[in-house]
Design goal:
heterodimer; A: 6-stranded mixed beta sheet; about 30% helix; B: 4-stranded antiparallel beta sheet
Chain lengths: ~230, ~1150
């Protein structure tokens, strides 16, 4: 993973004072995106995020309360994309919380369980809700999780694929357990997001820390800095 | 002068200027961009003077040392140096500035004029004025077109500033043989003022007639009446209309400050004495100061260490007043004073330190040492050395440190003329200060300064922050504190959470500090939003710190959408942060029933914190209020109330198990604290949801549920009674209506007798409810007797009393009181209240329950006995037999009430007293209430010797008493006894007493001999006393002996005098007697006995006896044979002996007195 210097755009004041420009190269573009995971409970949202952020998988992932927050940074060509991930709870009682998180989110992953038809139906209602209430530019991805249990499949790949195409969604079948498509779906989202430096005020930040903290992030397949 | 002015020609240059005054002269006296640009080059990019930002100085407590900047004007300095070196211009002596120009005068009569870029415009030197010496004063006119230059040797020239040509020469404008010290133009361009070393002030008027320039001078103030040290005309752009018509000048002489009007007429407006400091000169300054809305001219004047501010108030053009504003006392003595901007005074003290003072707050903001400036002093001019003096001594002494012409201010800048260079002191604006501090790496100061400003400075402050973060590799503590403060003040959450975090995250200690700072700001509700990432780490950090209370506060204060709920709620569960948990769940999910369901398993009577939290939570939910703070959104209130109530009324919990009891939530709350829980419900009953028809049904339903839940054995009798009371309250106030059978059950519960103890509060409530029921007539189906029985059984004595009262069955009421644990003490009130009501038979009840009553409060009992039943005292005393303590307290109370007890009771008391309060026995015995004999027996029984002795004394057994005292070492008492004995006994007995004492003491010596002698002396004769004293220290008796000796001397002396007096008396009486005897005696010629004539008519001789008393008779008539021994039979007086007897009588008493006098030694010891 490429390590960019934090001060990609020197503040005006510093420039005027002639402070030396740091040798940080021209590529230090940093984008920060808010991403929200939605879906029925026990479809594997938390596992998916845990796999992406820490590269871990727990067979018995505890049920999320409210929403959990995680961050992960990926490199995409010359851009560093930093995801602020809100992993929401799937239980019905927390449904009312979701708007707090998807409002102002630039991306959403709606997760369903391919072994459970109901979760797919629920995913559809989530997509509808997002389309209706979230930001119009939101990038929505549909993730059919638990691909490792394909032998118990209840939702056909084509069915979901068709639905995704109709609604302009990114679609992948993933497996948090085997890490299939996990990074890919996040990267796909990162690619689809608008890359203009959307937050001037938050330039100058170093992602080194974030990586150090989520150590496994560095070990994720080298697909982030191709 | 004024007439001259009017005659001015239209084409006179200055007249033209005068005419365009209003429009053209309206130039601010501060700052034009051109000069600023120099400063900007030297200082910063931000040239505009920002007076508003200077406000921040007022709030700055710390001395940042960033307010003043100091630099050398190189351009000017090098020109002066080269002029000195190349053309021999000499040293700089004077500096003046106005608008675009700065002029410097030198010691050899050169004037150098510089423009704003420090370029030399021209250099003037008139060889004709060579002999005039140094330039001693310079003055520009207001629009800087003319320059007046005064010389040391009294010459004055006027120069055209644009080209340096001389326009006028004024060789003799003022007093000859004096140096020009001051020159000032007034607001009128054709009027200038000149002050010289004689202390005189002249007005200089300039004219131009037919192209010929002329001038006129007039003496305004003569030095003869007081030397003017300095003057300053008011030229500030205040009110041009006023200023063009009035010329005001402030002057300071050696002793006072005066303000005069020079034009239109000369008039003194103001005069105040100056502090008398002979070594320093007075100082004057005008400045416009913003007051309310307008800027008002203020005269600053002072001397030594005192500064005064006087405000000029003008109404119209005529009415001019000066009002004193304030006085500042400084700790140093200053020699120069100039304004820097409108709020700051620059003062140079006598040690050449420049102090910057904020006028409003009177605080010193900064001190700059000017030692290296080498300030130019013009004391030589003040002493007029060049023209041979002629200056008064006071003037030259004061002028020792004169530097009026070495300073020149403009706006917020101050030019200082040093011997080597021209210096510039400048106030920094806010942004300049930030720049200055940040360049020096004083980030903490810079950031604190940045945080102070709130209005429209966020951008600069943000830039500063970023620059800070870029430039600082290792964050230090102070700057981090300042940076966090700055971020919070400017609401820069992004900077705070991203850049600043990056800066601290690698340093453990800084991270700790960062977290604690954040926590402080959050807890003090100055910060409510962080990025989710920082929130997450902060929460994790606080959890690791184990300070859960702070963690809870933080969770309560932070915005919900920046919290990682999963993390936060888990932590809350783990650490039992109930409040935070409830806050987060209810506010985010809006699930108000979940706190009840969530903590059901933990809600035990032992978990006080949770129990109370739950009760308050339920209560506030039912009242439609948010918990732990805030409000429930209006549209949700109804739902919340419904949810919570439904939850309470839920028959089974979600995780229903076989053994679960019904209504688990309500049951848990009731089990936790039934009373508070019922209170919550009662409170809730006042809400809208519980009112009306539907509300009644709701209430009934809830009460039935409660009755269903609260049953033994799970709930104790007390708890049942609690519920019963609660229901009774509702019933009596008609808030529920229950079926009769339920009511009956409830009443039964209320009236049941308890097996265990019941706490007082419950008991009281129960009685109250019961009474309420009786009063509201709801228990009419139970007979009175039955009820009394039940009331007594269940110990509801208040109810019983009430019923007895109803039945007029008074004789058991006192008993009710006595049995009632709560109202025992009220029995006295009851007794006192009804003591006179016979039918209440208080007396009988009192007597029969006396021992119980006295146990409650013996004091009150005694009071009642003394007041109402004194005759029953013996009876009561007998009643108490066997309980000595009570008996004693009772009797003691009586004694204290001064009741005279009969002797037998007194003896009982004495006996008890001996047991309980031995120290009071003596006192009591002295009252002689008991018979002596029995009392003696008692005291002897208890070996109370003192008391026994007192009793013996009372019985007249003095010696026994004395013996007792002495045996037990009460020597003092023994002494007193002896003294008393002397009074009561005859002298022999008394003497025996004393001797007994002395004898005893001889062996024991428990009292010092001196003391003993002292006490004994008045009663026993010295000689006897001395018998007892042997083998003693001489010292002990020395005084005694001395006194005896002195007494002896006195007695001897008295005796001598007595004898002398007696001798005289005898002599006198003798003389009297002799005189008497020599008296003639006349008598009648008849015998007083026989009444016959004495003379013998018949010639026979008769012997006649004659006495001194004048009686005479025949010798023969008197029967006595011996005439000499006879008295006059009539007077029966022994005439011859009478005088003798008389004398003897006189002597005797004196002798007896003498014999009786005992040496009164009392006073001598």
């Amino acid at each position: 993973m490429e390590h960019t210097e934090p001060h990609s755009t020197e503040p005006e004041m510093a420039n005027r004072q002639g402070a030396a420009q740091r040798p940080n190269g021209a590529q230090g573009k940093i984008c920060q995106f808010k991403l929200v995971l939605l879906g029925e409970s026990a479809v594997g949202k938390s596992s998916l995020v845990l796999r992406f952020v820490k590269g871990q998988f727990h067979e018995y992932q505890e049920s999320t309360i409210g929403a959990a927050f995680l961050t992960q940074t990926v490199c995409l060509d010359d851009t560093t994309v930093k995801f602020e991930i809100w992993d929401t709870a799937g239980q019905e009682r927390y449904h009312s919380l979701a708007p707090m998180y998807y409002r102002g989110a630039q991306a959403a992953i709606v997760v369903y369980d391919i072994t459970n038809q109901d979760t797919f139906g629920r995913a559809k209602t989530w997509v509808k809700e997002l389309q209706r209430q979230a930001s119009p530019t939101i990038v929505i991805a549909l993730a059919g999780n638990k691909q490792d249990l394909a032998n118990k499949r209840m939702v056909e790949y084509e069915e979901a694929q068709t639905y995704a195409e109709e609604n302009g969604l990114l679609f992948m079948e993933t497996s948090a357990k085997t890490a299939l498509n996990v990074n890919d779906i996040f990267l796909a989202i990162a690619k689809k997001l608008p890359k203009y430096d959307q937050n001037q005020g938050q330039s100058g930040q170093g992602q080194g820390r974030r990586l150090a903290e989520g150590d496994q992030g560095a070990k994720t397949p080298g697909n982030c800095c191709k | 002068m004024s007439t001259d002015c009017e005659e001015d020609d239209a084409d006179s240059l200055f007249d033209i200027n005068l005419k365009i005054n209003d429009s053209e002269f309206d130039i601010p006296s501060v700052a034009t961009p051109s000069l600023e640009s120099i400063l900007s080059d030297m200082e910063s990019e931000d040239g505009s003077i920002d007076n508003a930002s200077l406000n921040s100085f007022q709030s700055t407590d710390m001395k940042l040392h960033s307010v003043l900047s100091h630099c050398i004007l190189q351009g000017i300095t090098s020109q002066i140096t080269s002029a000195r070196e190349r053309v021999g211009a000499g040293w700089a002596t004077v500096i003046a500035n106005r608008l675009k120009f700065i002029a410097v005068g030198t010691s050899h009569g050169f004037i150098l004029n510089f423009d704003a870029e420090q370029n030399l415009c021209w250099c003037y030197h008139d060889s004709g004025t060579d002999d005039q010496g140094a330039i001693s004063a310079l003055a520009f006119n207001l629009d800087s077109t003319r320059l007046l230059a005064g010389y040391e040797r009294s010459y004055i020239v006027m120069i055209d500033v644009t080209n340096g040509n001389v326009l006028r020469r004024l060789p003799d404008a003022h007093a000859p043989q004096s140096s020009v010290l001051h020159l000032r133009f007034t607001f009128k361009n054709n009027l200038a003022l000149c002050g010289d070393s004689r202390g005189c002030v002249f007005s200089l008027t300039f004219h131009r007639r037919l192209g010929v320039r002329s001038w006129n001078s007039r003496c305004l103030f003569s030095g003869a009446t007081g030397e003017v040290c300095v003057f300053e005309p008011l030229v500030h752009d205040y009110d041009t209309n006023f200023l063009s018509q009035n010329v005001l000048v402030a002057m300071a002489t050696m002793s006072k400050v005066i303000v005069i009007s020079v034009y239109p007429q000369v008039k003194c407006l103001y005069s105040r004495p100056l502090p008398r400091v002979s070594t320093s000169l007075p100082l004057l300054c005008w400045q416009l100061i913003p007051m309310t809305k307008m800027r008002q001219p203020v005269l600053t004047w002072g001397r030594g260490s005192e500064i005064n501010f006087t405000r000029l108030i003008i109404h119209g053009t005529k009415n001019i007043k000066l009002v004193a504003l304030k006085t500042i006392q400084l700790s140093y003595s200053f020699i120069a004073m100039e304004w820097l901007s409108m709020q700051h005074l620059a003062l140079i003290d006598s040690r050449e330190n420049l102090h910057l003072i904020d006028v409003r707050s009177e605080k010193e903001l900064e001190t700059v040492e000017l030692e290296n400036v080498e300030l130019v002093y013009s004391s030589a001019h003040f002493k007029a050395l060049a023209i041979g003096g002629g200056v008064s001594e006071a003037f030259s002494l004061a002028g020792e440190k004169a530097c009026y012409n070495s300073l020149s201010s403009r706006g917020d800048q101050l030019f200082l003329l040093g011997t080597q260079a021209v210096h510039l002191i400048k106030l920094r604006s806010w942004s300049e200060r930030l720049m200055y501090l940040s360049e020096r790496g004083r980030w903490a100061d810079a950031l604190s300064l940045a945080a102070e400003e709130g209005n429209n400075r966020e951008k600069i402050a943000t830039l500063l922050l970023q620059r800070y973060l870029v430039n600082v590799d290792v964050v230090d503590k102070e700057s981090l504190i300042a940076a966090v403060n700055c971020c919070v003040k400017l609401n820069q959450v992004d900077v705070l959470c991203n850049e600043l975090w990056d800066a601290v995250s690698n340093d453990f200690f800084m991270k700790e500090l960062y977290y604690s700072l954040l926590t402080d700001y959050i807890v003090n509700s100055k910060l409510s939003r962080l990025t989710p990432f920082i929130t997450q780490s902060l929460v994790a950090h606080l959890e690791s710190k184990r300070d859960v209370q702070i963690l809870e506060n933080v969770l309560l204060m932070l915005e919900l959408d920046c919290l990682d709920l999963h993390q936060a709620l888990n932590i809350c569960r783990r650490h039992k942060l109930y409040n935070a948990w409830i806050h987060l769940t209810t506010k985010t999910i809006g699930d108000y029933a979940s706190p009840l369901t969530e903590f059901l398993s933990e809600l035990t009577p032992f978990n006080q914190r949770l129990g109370n939290t739950m009760l308050v939570y339920v209560s506030s939910c039912l009242a439609g209020l948010g918990y732990p703070n805030g409000n429930i959104p209006k549209e949700c209130i109804k739902k919340v109330k419904f949810d919570v109530l439904r939850c309470l009324e839920t028959l089974h919990s979600i995780n229903y198990k076989e053994n679960e009891k019904t209504y688990p939530y309500l049951r848990a709350l009731l089990k936790f604290n039934i009373r508070e829980c019922l209170n919550v419900i009662e409170l809730a009953f006042t809400e809208v949801e519980f009112s009306g028809e539907m509300g009644l049904l709701q209430r009934n339903r809830l009460v039935k549920i409660l009755m269903e839940i609260v049953t033994p054995p799970e709930f104790s009798e007390c708890e049942e009674i609690n519920l019963a009371c609660f229901i009774c309250r509702l019933v009596t106030s008609d808030r529920i209506n229950l079926e009769d059978n339920l009511l009956g059950i409830n009443f039964e519960k209320l009236m049941q007798s308890t097996s265990g103890p019941i706490n007082l509060r419950d008991q009281m409530e129960r009685e109250q409810s019961w009474l309420d029921l009786i009063i509201s007539n709801r228990l009419k189906n139970i007979s009175s007797d039955d009820m009394i029985k039940r009331a007594l059984e269940s110990k509801c004595f208040r109810v019983a009393e009430y019923l007895y009262n109803l039945d007029k069955n008074y004789c058991r009421i006192v008993e009710c009181y006595l049995n009632d644990m709560i109202r025992k003490n009220e029995v006295f009130d009851y007794i006192v209240k009804y003591i006179d009501v016979n039918e209440r038979c208080i007396r009988d009840q009192f007597s029969s329950h006396f021992s119980e009553i006295i146990t409650i409060d013996h004091r009150k009992t005694v009071e009642i006995v003394v007041e109402y039943f004194p005759e029953l005292i013996p009876q009561f005393c007998d009643t108490l037999e066997g309980d000595d303590n009570l008996r004693f307290q009772f009797l003691d109370g009586l004694i204290n009430c001064d009741v005279k007890l009969p002797s037998n009771i007194s003896e009982i008391y004495l006996d008890l007293l001996c047991v309980y309060q031995k120290e009071k026995v003596k006192e009591f015995v002295e009252q002689r209430l008991c018979t002596v004999k029995s009392a003696l027996e008692i005291t002897q029984k208890y070996d109370l010797h003192e008391a026994t002795a007192i009793l013996l004394e009372q019985d007249g057994e003095w010696f026994e008493a004395l013996e007792l005292y002495l045996d037990h070492g009460f020597v003092d008492r023994a002494l007193n006894l002896c003294i008393r004995g002397t009074e009561h006994l005859d002298s022999d007995e008394a003497k025996k007493l004393w001797i007994f004492l002395l004898e005893h003491e001889k062996n024991n010596k428990s009292i010092s001999l001196r003391q003993l002698l002292h006490s004994t002396a008045p009663y026993i004769h010295s000689s006897q006393l001395l018998d007892f004293i042997f083998n003693v220290n001489f010292c002990d008796i020395k005084t005694s002996l001395l006194e005896i000796y002195t007494d002896y001397l006195i007695d001897t002396y008295l005796n001598t005098i007595n004898l002398k007096l007696l001798g005289e008396d005898i002599q006198q009486s003798l003389a009297k007697a002799i005189a008497k005897n020599r008296r003639g005696i006349s008598f009648m010629n008849s015998c007083d006995l026989c009444h016959g004539t004495l003379s013998s008519r018949n010639g026979e001789s008769t012997i006649i006896a004659t006495w001194g008393c004048g009686h005479c008779f025949h010798r023969s008539c008197s029967v006595c044979p011996n005439l000499e021994e006879l008295m006059c039979p009539l007077c029966k007086k022994k005439t011859s002996d009478s005088s003798h007897l008389h004398l003897n009588r006189k002597i005797e008493p004196s002798a007896s007195v003498k014999a009786n006098i005992r040496p009164d030694l009392e006073g001598h010891f």
